[in-house]
Amino acid sequence: MQNNTHENSTAMPYKAAVFDLDGTLLDSLADLADAGNAAMKAFGFPEHPVTSYKHFVGNGVRVLLQRALPEDARNDENLERCLKIFNEEYHQHWNRKSAPYPGIPELLDWLQDQGLALAVLSNKPQAFMQEIMNHFFSAWKFDPAYGASDAFPRKPDPTGLSLVAEQLSVKPDEILFLGDTNVDMNTANNAGAVAVGVLWGFRDAQELTEAGAKLLLEDPMGLTNWLRTPQQDQTLSIPRRFSKEGCVSA
């Protein structure tokens, strides 16, 4: 078994799979929306349907709250007050409704069997991110797992992904970076990694394609089909879409 894994990883042109967290590994939208709406409600601001939070997330908690606040209320005082409530609520209820997306455990097992390194790069605050990873994803070795901190700028700045490449001793173009927003696609392209857009997350195919996705996945196991395809074409102006059944567009 070890010999097969080594042979597969040697033949594989990619050495690492780096994941965004929210909307990619974890369906966390409802818990994020609940915390955001608790902050809005606490200060008399309008609450939002859960689906609206698909467009609020992606650039960190502060930006999420800026987007959730009414335009005429987006000042530092309101932001700080809402941030305090959001953090308190999310800290207590981050795992009430969240769960890994269907197919993610199977994909992670397959990637590890092929010898690919696994890592996470998220704009979620480091403490929340690490707690979530320990709870939901301790069965797999994600190293490194980086969230938002003062150590480097947030995505789409490429610094974090470049640090991941350095820590894993791989070249940027040997990394598959999986994410569900334009922020993630821009991060991958800024760092020279392969931008893989996931369609089960918070944004749609148009946004991901316009942001430079090289590949679109209908479901997690679609990545395994693409990696088994001979002579993968990474230069298409319109990215191919793969599902667990195979290529669904070319």
Number of strands: 10
Q: Give the number of helices.
A: 11
Name the overall outline. globular
Look at the helices and sheets and give the structural class.
Answer: alpha/beta
Helix content: 40-55%
Assembly state: single chain
Radius of gyration: 18 Å
Order of helices and strands, N to C?
A: HEEHHHHEHEHEHEHEHEHEE
Largest sheet: 8 strands, mixed
Residue windows where pLDDT falls under 50 for at least 5 positions: 1-10
Concise account of the structure shown:
It is built from 11 helices and 10 strands.
Structure overview:
This protein is of the alpha/beta class. Helices cover 43% and strands 18% of the residues. The protein has helices spanning 2-11, 29-42, 53-56, 61-68, 76-93, 104-113, 126-136, 159-168, 182-191, 205-210, 222-228, and strands at 16-19, 26-27, 99-100, 117-125, 142-148, 175-179, 194-198, 215-217, 240-243, 246-249. α9 (182-191) links the parallel β6 (175-179) and β7 (194-198). The radius of gyration is 18 Å and the shape is globular.
